[in-house]
Amino acid sequence: MEGLMMNYPLTTTTILEYGNSVYHHKKIITYLPDGSRHEYSFGDMYKRCKKLANALTQKLGIKEGDMVGTFAWNHGPHVELYYGISGVGAVCHTINIRLSLNQIEYIINNSEDKVIFVDASLVPLLEKIAPLLETVTHYVLINAPKDFSTTLPNTLHYEELLADQSEDFEWPALNENDASGMCYTSGTTGLPKGVLYSHRSTFLHATTIISPNAGNFSNRDTVLLIVPQFHVMAWGFPYLCLLSGSNMVLPSSNLQPEAIIKILIAEKVNKANGVPTIWLGVYHAMKKNPPKEKLALEEYLVGGSALPKSLIEGFEKNFGIRGVQAWGMTETSPLGTVSRLQPKHDHLSAEEQLAIRAKQGTAFPGVEIRIVTDDGTMAPADGKSMGELQIKGAWTVSSYFKTNNSESFTEDGWFKTGDVSTIDEDGYMEIKDRTKDLIKSGGEWISSVALESALMAHPKIKEAAVIAIPDEKWVEKPLASIVLVNEEDKILEEELIEFLSRDFVKYQIPKDYIFIKEVPKTSVGKFDKKEIRRLFAEGKLT
Ligand code: AMP
């Protein structure tokens, strides 16, 4: 028997309408790339979303189901694009500005973006590949002066585009299962894969994160959104702030520790998000130069890489600021688990509590996780048995865009994360390792396989195996172990860096090289990365 409740659409437009009707006075504050501050209200933003909707449909010819790209920092217009594009039934495809030009070209052509909204400061990157972009008809420049000069074809200015549009727009009735946003993951081997979020998944993800057991957001909060809007719809924050009535502070490219501290103080920010590298930078800058007044910051939500215990401890002891760890993936919208203490942990020692907070945490309601061992059996929840972490839930990918990657899913419908984890008796998951042959440095992926094949194309190199090693600033960084064709040959590290810079962006290129006699291999002759990591950790990699 079907229930007799209304079939009310869980869409991004529902979120926008709610934010406007209940919290129209709440603020969106942007620090622009030149450091200047801009403030407006949710109500002002709402009107501009309607103008944008008119511009998209009437001036740019965008129809339901079309892809519209954004290539931009965090700021008010980018929030408008999240709502305006999905509100007209199109898909807001946020393009990661940190990918290599080859990858950016691939994902724009693969997604078939019709229009790209691009920040003036990022135009030089797109100019390099624009002739190769097959489907883009217009580029709309954001934050560009009137006389801005570019070789991009068919350009419009965002403010001019909105200026002569009406504030009246009737949102189309959308199916909540239709696509609202898209983000490519580079956290896989091979080509980036598109993850297509639905209105419904976006709505449910955002509402769940608001709850006190999860992200803990309310209309008393002012939140700094450090996670770039080109990363997994900025972890749902542009949506949840409208639902919870939290003021939003957007730093655009002001991501240096000193700039972040200045913004935290000026805006009395009490909650924020970001990858560990950002918070490590902020912590060390605050230690070096302690702020004169106590920050309003109560809590920062960290994900993307493991939150080091030392950082949780240091921030709390020295500044009374709490670090909360979450785990997730592009494929999981992204948030899947969060680690918070419960009343039953109150009696534990500080050290025991810290050990729990340093785990990746328990699943959100609406998400299930399990561990499957190498022999295909379910691992018991004992905190010791390791295996691959698998996930399913209301905001987990069911299939990649345009590709049939059945190897990423189990027959019984779980998504295989490629993370190796344990789950303890209380449901707290802990990441122990990764099956993906990738390195995550400062929140961005580096493919060790791609580096290895590039290095092995060097005439003097016989074998190259690249592993992740710990780094204080970037959490992980690549180390290349190299076997030369002729042992007596010499290659300077600078020569290798120069050689790799043809195909890789700067942060992806290893700065650390070790010249060895032979790469350890598995029984089937593959590079034994586990063994290389062990030898390196024990100082025996020679
Ligand atoms: P991405 O899809 O780029 O967001 O990357 C997702 C991957 O980042 C996960 O599969 C993990 O390998 C890693 N990751 C995310 N959050 C954490 C965390 N809290 N601790 C350790 N690794 C994490």
Walk me through what this model shows:
It contains 15 helices and 25 strands. Among the domains are: 13-208, ANL, N-terminal domain (Rossmann fold); 438-537, 2-Layer Sandwich (GMP Synthetase, Chain A, domain 3), CATH 3.30.300. A hairpin with a 3-residue loop joins strand 23 (461-471) and strand 24 (475-484). The radius of gyration is 24 Å and the shape is globular. 28% of the residues lie in helices and 25% in strands. Helix 7 packs across helix 8 (237-244) and helix 9 (257-266) crosses helix 10 (276-288). The longest helix has 18 residues, at 42-59. The model has no long low-confidence stretch (mean pLDDT 95). It has a 9-stranded mixed β-sheet with strand order 2-1-11-10-12-13-14-15-16, with helices on both faces. A 7-stranded mixed β-sheet has the order 7-6-5-3-4-8-9, with helices on both faces. With 542 residues, the protein is α/β, with parallel strands linked by helices. Residues 185, 187, 232, 303-306, 325, 327-330, 334, 360, 417-419, 431, 434, 440, 445 line the site of adenosine monophosphate. Adenosine monophosphate binds next to strand 14, strand 19 and strand 20.
